[in-house]
Amino acid sequence: MTEKGPGRVLGLDVGSKTIGMAVSDLLGITAQGLPTYRRQNKRLDFEELRKVIGQYEVREIVVGLPLRMSGSEGTQSEKMRIFAEELRRQFSLPVHLSDERLTSAEANRVLRETEMSIKRRGEVVDRMAAVLILQSWMEQRAQAQSREQDGRIG
After folding, report:
1. In CATH, what number is assigned to the domain containing residue 138?
2. Is 2 inside any structural domain?
3. Strand 31-38 to 58-65 pairing
């Protein structure tokens, strides 16, 4: 695979204790959840992300940006902006921030509709949130590209 060839997009739902992860297919259409990573320290966290990036040939990263319901930013948003900048420096990849409002609530709602135990739901909610963040970002990008192409044709 060439450096400029297709690659996957990694979606991250970053919390203080865990990092929910999801990866796209090669075409950037669907998102699949990966095991949630339990955070340890910055060095080990980035080591784990380096493994995932290499294993899945990741070419872009999307990080959930926690905004207030009003759309304004707070302390957590600033932490994610700093984290995204660290990802850019560490991995020399494009890193995008994506509004993650309601993704954890939506993940919990989806999981509640399953027969899954509360304990098991707690284990997979971060993964599901990462899938929702990545899926939403890919759909928005596809819509923007479609509008751009429509503008060139018309």
Report:
1. 3.30.420.140
2. no
3. unpaired
| pTM of the predicted model as reported, rounded to 2 decimal places | 0.86
Indicate whether 49 belongs to any domain: yes
pLDDT digits (tens, 9 = 90+) for 89-144: 999 999 999 998 877 777 878 888 887 787 777 778 899 999 999 999 999 998 88
